[in-house]
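Batch manifest, entry 17 of 40.
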Amino acid sequence: MADTSDARRGEGWRLPPPTRVHRGEFFSLGGLLAPYLKTRTPFAPWTLSAAFLLTLGVWDPLMRGGPFDAILLGLAAYELLIGLTRVETPQPARATQRVRRD
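Output type: C-alpha cells
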C-alpha cells in the first residue's frame, strides 16, 4: 500500500489549476496539455498532440491494411496550425525574477 501522508498534508506534486478556453481562442488538445508540460519550447504540447493524432490516423493502414482516417489527419494538421499561430500572452515576472533598480 502506498504512503499517502505527503498528499494528505498537501505536500508533493500538484496539478496546476484548470484552464478554460477564453473567448476568441480556439480549442485544441495542445492547449489542454500546455499547463501540464514543462518544456523548453512553447510549441511542444501542440507537436505532441499532433503526433498522437497522426499515429491514430495511420494505425489501421499500418496494422491491417485499412484506409487512412482523414478526420484524424485533419485534426493533426489543425493542432499544428493552432500551435504555430498562437499568440503568447506575456506573463508577469515573479518576485524572484524582478530586478530592483534604485
